[in-house]
Amino acid sequence: MKDYLIRGLAFNDEIRFFVTKTTDLVEEIRQRHDAYPTAIAAVGRTATVTTMMGAMLKSGDRIDVAVRGDGPVGTIYASSNELGETTAYAKNMQVHIPSNAQGKLDVKGVVGGGNITVVRDLGLNEKYTTTSPIVSGEIAEDFTYYFAASEQVPSAVSLGVLVETDNSVIAAGGFILQVLPNATNDTITKIEKAISNIKPISTLIHEGKTPEEIANIIFGGEENYRILHKNDVEFKCTCSKERYADALVTLGKEELEAIAKQETTELVCAFCKEKYHFSQNEITDLLDNLK
Fold this sequence. Notes:
The protein is α+β, with helices and mostly antiparallel strands. Helix content is 34%, strand content 31%.
């Protein structure tokens, strides 16, 4: 089953929801960065919630998330759009620490304390930045707090990444449930009861449950919700040689002249690890354009 996301409305349009499977996405991030288990659990959860937040955007917009913790994994960066095209990485992907008291990967331990920054790029140089504190380091709880504090939308966020003994990611996904202004107390009670009894999201995905089947479990049957949109989710980076050429130009004349003395200049994308090579002639051309 390919990665994909569904979004829709439930209980007489009183609840907005997003459910996604991101197993392949998170496994690709792990492979590209040779990530260790606890690190990929933290980065995978962040990539998953960012993917669902991307689904809240209009066409052409982009969302960038930074989880700036003081734990050993360092800052986690993730980026997505409304098409489900997502990338993510952390400053230190080669981090693994002992399991927590529940025998689970200690995501809280690698993330630490700090804050979350969310930047919505709405095009035409229009960007909106919001920040909220890291309240637990478990990522899902931190974004539950973020939605309530920064966006004034009561939400329930569930995220999970299941890692095999060979370090590969065998299940990943999540859901976001948001209470709309017209929601009744009865509906809110139903949602609270449903999410208190549900299995971990990574377990459901590992069992082969689709996003629709997970929605069925949450809402007690397909008659209680409707899907408004469904789209694929995939790893896709926005980097290109042209973008890196533009970045080199911003370094200025002196820096470029120093770089031009090298036979080849190699730049590596932090998100996808793609390597871009610039010859002496190409750097000289950039210098000529500066003049």
